[in-house]
């Protein structure tokens, strides 16, 4: 493990080159999909595992969006955040657009013990806080809307992103290579080798690499932001007998940047800050791409995640299947022991707050044991036990002159946080086929959880030893919390088959997302954050069209999330005389609307995927948020305490999303030509729950496309692609987080340019033999 990331990448690229040279030019290939592929099959043949058993997609009484490997490739979907261009119900938020939301419900917490409301599951393993980002050698992605904790591990109160990678194939040796290269120094490579060992065993290896320049440039150093990711996966499949299958999977991924912050100033209305930026050569605007940061630091912006899992499936007499999934996952981010410049928060060449560090280590162990009944019985069921154990160690440190201390003096604050989470659960879901057409669904899950969160602030002596000054006006508090809780969540429903190709369903689900501890709470603030409990209703229809070539789905949904975890107003008390905001529970939030989807092959030469969602998401009427930087206390809608009613639509939740993508093919002699296109529309959103026109995003239109040729046997292909062809610049976020430091008057707005900030082009080569 002594090789550096750079040398490892060179070795990986060299191996890709050697593999490519072993293939004749006529064998450059378009990868992938074992028959019947999702894009080639009739919709009646598509199989998913949305209910922990293999079922036809059109028979599943759950809102499921399926993205197959070919669609992932043609849309250049290489990361989980890219899936928003393929699934209408999936949106994203956050500084880098990496926080997923399904039908408007997401994670609004910033405490270490908060877990995502959208659970990511990789080959049956719940990722939890050891999240992954890259999608490589993936068979399909299933996005399930609504509470899914019944069958998918823990939490999953908003939904699940279920990632299924490609399994080893004992019947054939195969090498698959894929390479993208484009402007802005974009490059992405994948190399997959399928290696049969015997008639009953095979290995599959995948390596992936991605590099891309970001948009932001630091005028102080002359460097532009760069993003990189490098990793791999190995998978062993062994079927020693006809009733036993063993899957062992190991994966590793390293992501990071060259240390540049992704933020720039977009709007500055304070003369002090404007003059500082001008002196550095930066002019704030909505299209600004430059900052003047002295706090760049590469070691602080690296993230490594890796894991190992083993799944054993044993078929018992009577075709019952007993499944065991054992997994251990690790994630490490940042650099412990470093307290210098990094994570610059003021984005200036003066040290106002140029140190903002948060290295972390997380380890999760999970064990699932479940029993699946055979198909075709009067009663079909899945039942099991689940256990998870997570421990994390985090360090936070902030430092700078705060615009008050003369150089070189710096104030500092920080501490360490240790979190331990343990969860036991017993679950089961059954379908009773009352008649050939009518079925009833019943499920339940009992969960027992324990959470311990200890945040210990650095002492003045410890801060001084690091070269900083401790001051009461800029300090951290020690917080400790313990929570032991249990919960019963449930699901009821009915399903009616009008014909083998059309059905309707009605379900009601009570979900659950575990408690958290606000380890950043101040004096007099209760650190315990209560569990979220969504009450979810869905009425849906699925029907096949064009002789089973197209599936149409429609659903109405209503979701009320009680104890919604978010930032809440904390009034003044004798112990805490200054009112403020802390992570806590809103009474509830609601999300309601409809979703329509079409996908399949209406004609032999045309593949089509289209979807639209309308989502009316609202906060509770009694919920209050902080007044924004443009408001004054006691004036207009801003109360004397500094609170106001939130925006009418939940922050970062678009009311409308529309997606259309497809591929048209045409024979060209011995070759096949193809044209692909995808269009995404998203209505305007508010980045902040406090009403402020400055932090409102305009409606978004993103257009992408691809043109190319390939061999009919799929052994080679070449294409040209483009993203954001309309050249519309959209940010991930607009916020005013540091008004108190930047001139003291607020109204200094950041923006984070997205990776699709500019029009981009590239070339793709595919090879397979």
TrEMBL record:
Q: SUPFAM superfamilies in the record, alphabetically?
A: Porins
TonB-dependent receptor plug domain residues are: 57-160
Instruction: Report the Pfam families cross-referenced here.
Output: Plug, TonB_dep_Rec_b-barrel
Q: Where is the TonB-dependent receptor-like beta-barrel domain?
A: 302-725
Q: What is the superkingdom listed in this entry's lineage?
A: Bacteria
**How does the record classify its membrane topology?**
Multi-pass membrane protein
Q: Which cellular compartments is it found in?
A: Cell outer membrane
Q: Which first-to-last residue range defines the signal peptide? A: 1-29
Q: Which InterPro entries match?
A: Beta-barrel_TonB (IPR000531), Beta-barrel_TonB_sf (IPR036942), Plug_dom (IPR012910), TonB-dep_rcpt-like (IPR039426)
Major subcellular location class: membrane
Please provide the record's keywords in A-Z order: Cell outer membrane, Ion transport, Iron, Iron transport, Membrane, Receptor, Signal, TonB box, Transmembrane, Transmembrane beta strand, Transport
Q: Does the keyword Transport apply?
A: yes
Which parts of the chain span the membrane according to its record? none
Recorded hits in PROSITE patterns, A to Z, give: TONB_DEPENDENT_REC_3 (PS52016)
Its Gene Ontology cellular component terms are:
cell outer membrane
| Keyword Iron-sulfur appears in the UniProt entry | no
Q: Name one GO biological process term.
A: iron ion transport
Q: Which family does it belong to?
A: Belongs to the TonB-dependent receptor family.
What PANTHER family is this protein classified in? FERRICHROME IRON RECEPTOR-RELATED, TONB-DEPENDENT OUTER MEMBRANE RECEPTOR
Task: Write down what this protein is called.
Answer: TonB-dependent receptor
- Which organism does this sequence originate in? Caulobacter radicis
For this protein's source organism, the top of the classification is: Bacteria, Pseudomonadati, Pseudomonadota, Alphaproteobacteria, Caulobacterales
